Amino acid sequence: MSAVSIYAEASPNPESMKFVLNSNLLVDGVSVDYPNLEAAANSPLAQELFGFDYVGRVFIAQNFVTVTKSQPEMAWTQLIPELRQFLKSYVEAGGPIFLVDPAAEQKAAQAATAGDPTQHDGQIAQKVIDLLDNYVRPAVEQDGGNITFKSYHEGIVTVNLQGSCSGCPSATVTLKSGIENLLKRMVPEVQSVVAEGITV
Fold first, then answer.
1. Where in the chain is the domain with CATH 3.30.300.130?
2. To which protein family does this belong (predicted)?
3. What's this model's pTM, rounded to 2 decimal places?
4. How far apart are CA 190 and CA 64, in angstroms?
5. Which residues contact 69 (CB under 8 A, 6 or more apart)?
6. Are 192 and 45 in contact (CB under 8 A)?
7. H or E segment at 161?
8. Other beta carbons less than 10 A from residue 6's beta carbon
9. Which of 7, 106, 137, 177 is most buried by a 10 A CB count?
10. What's phi and psi for 117, nearest 5 deg?
């Protein structure tokens, strides 16, 4: 395995730090969010990270891992070197990231939720998914998080916020002023956007 380089990048959520790798952990467009150790059964890497007593949430995307700390009093300056060294050693040693490929799981889950009762709703849902994938998700990933489409029903889009977005003080503002405005402008049927996964 070639040498892995990792740098830490601050996110808008002061409790979350994004660790960017020069190698891929997942295919583009797929990400996983583990709010606790129990949820991380499919990821040996995330389980190891939860072994650090200050790690409260782990989010894994194409080429980065976002760690959210559970102890606000601990400074990132103390934690970054330890986490960066752990991730570097783990990935260089070829440690398993996942037991089951999350891409297959997510495709099945999205197909199940996108099965809207009416064809019209299904077409609107597809427009919303395309907009989120092309315009919103790249920006959210820059900040160490992710947004996924959950459902569309009678003008209301439900999305799921993951990674640094969960618990971020500015997540609600971003959701309402940024994402909701974009979707309402591009898809007139959309009346509002609500999010799951925001823990304030």
1. 106-196
2. Belongs to the NifU family.
3. 0.71
4. 32
5. 15, 16, 17, 54, 55, 56, 76, 79
6. no
7. strand 156-163
8. 20
9. 137
10. -65, -35
Q: Map residue 115 onto helix, strand or coil.
A: coil
CATH architecture of 6-93: 2-Layer Sandwich (3.30)
Matching residue, tokens 């197909």? 111
Contact 155, 189 (CB under 8 A): yes
- Write out the chain's pLDDT in tens, 200 residues: 578 999 999 988 899 999 999 999 988 778 889 999 999 999 999 999 999 999 999 999 889 999 999 999 999 999 999 999 999 999 999 999 998 888 776 666 555 555 545 677 888 888 888 888 888 888 888 878 888 888 888 899 998 888 777 766 666 666 777 888 888 888 999 999 888 765 54
Place of tokens 């790798």: 21
How long is the chain?
200
Q: Strands, DSSP E only, in 47-86?
A: 55-60, 64-69
The letter for the amino acid at 11 is S
User: Quick one: which of 126, 124, 145, 116 has its CA closest to 187?
Assistant: 124
| Other C-beta atoms lying within 10 Å of the C-beta of residue 111 | 9
